[in-house]
């Protein structure tokens, strides 16, 4: 079933996150733009170029014809398109690429702000699947921007931006994937009742029942058999595949119930490509 996402809150979240990204990059020295990040082959500059290139594409521009065959970390057509945008901007200095970011995001916000709820409810292809809505696509754009913002923050040693509204909006994009994460990625067996407890800003509890398939539920018939507890911010980093859980287990990630299965879950949360 297509996902309907509120127009006004989506535009507001995108505006807030893009403003925060601009503020972060404005405070960087030239050398900071060249720092490597957690994504193979990408620098702090490349993280910003990726967001710019995606918004250029959504505005109708074609990716530059740049040879990216040497980027052996690229795995698919979307990745190749992303890499072409990034490669085209690697010669820009910090202030130049930041100016491009501010220009394209301001233009996109003007377009998005003029759209209606009906426009957001219209059918659209998205990275999550073809039978979705434009609003879902824009929620994914916020999620992607927030995650890449924090890739850059980690690389330059800037503190995380644990804004509850931004975290909440990102978690709304993660929640539909939890059945896949629990049942397929982590391989939690049938008959298990999984509790994922998130703490801090945007705290919440997810309950996943594993029967014929794993699915989110409102309540269990019995006690949870597998549980993990961690902050919402760390949960987003792990589900986005930005770091491994092993260093955090029994520290920032608490295990409960069947501890073998709980560790199996904690170390297999990543679902993004």
Topology summary:
Blueprint: H1 7-26, H2 44-58, H3 77-88, H4 94-114, H5 117-121, E1 123-126, E2 129-133, H6 134-156, H7 164-174, H8 178-185, E3 193-199, E4 204-210, E5 214-217, E6 226-231, H9 232-239, E7 254-257, H10 259-266
Helix pairs in contact: 1-4, 1-6, 2-3, 2-4, 2-6, 6-7, 7-9
Features:
two-stranded antiparallel sheet; globular; five-stranded mixed sheet; alpha+beta; Nonspecific Lipid-transfer Protein, Chain A; about 270 residues; 2 domains; Four Helix Bundle (Hemerythrin (Met), subunit A); single chain
Question: What do these coordinates show?
Answer:
By secondary structure, this protein is an alpha+beta fold. It folds into two domains: 7-161, dinb family like domain (Four Helix Bundle (Hemerythrin (Met), subunit A), Up-down Bundle), CATH 1.20.120; 173-266, SCP2 sterol-binding domain (Nonspecific Lipid-transfer Protein, Chain A). Helices cover 48% and strands 14% of the residues. The protein contains ten helices and seven strands. The protein has helices at residues 7-26, 44-58, 77-88, 94-114, 117-121, 134-156, 164-174, 178-185, 232-239, 259-266, and strands at residues 123-126, 129-133, 193-199, 204-210, 214-217, 226-231, 254-257. The chain has a five-stranded mixed beta sheet. A hairpin with a 3-residue loop joins strand 4 (204-210) and strand 5 (214-217). The chain is globular and about 55 Å long. The model has no long low-confidence stretch (mean pLDDT 96).
